[in-house]
Design goal:
single chain, 149 residues, alpha+beta, Mago nashi protein, globular
Amino acid sequence: MILLINNKYEKRLYNEKLDFNDNLKFSKITFILGENYKPHFFITLDSLGNIFSEDKISVRDNTITRNFKLTSAEINSIDSLFKFSCIDKTDTAGWNCWWCCDDCVPMLIKFEYNNKTTIIKTYEFTKMPYRIWSIYWRITKILFERENS
């Protein structure tokens, strides 16, 4: 929004409520850390709150598997973050950096929502928009809290 005084540009104002899209309904969110065919870390969350994760913990491919259902408060917090994500209006081509660097681990993020799919491939967490990062952070925080309780 632009504030005009006497038809003269004064100030550009921003309101985050404009970014909230109540029509966004996610059906599935998937995070894959590592190569598709052999991931190091894998999380899937569906709209019913079922979460499944696998974590490779050693070179010998020992796997920790977690499968549980989120509480309604946890589902609502992730759903709210998703509705603020602007994923439906954002051009994701800018963050699809999939070139190789020596010390980087590839990450694939797949959002399935409103009969659409958006896939983000990146090697750098810092290139991920903060609105997407907050969804990943919230889901991994829930996993950590469940593991340590």
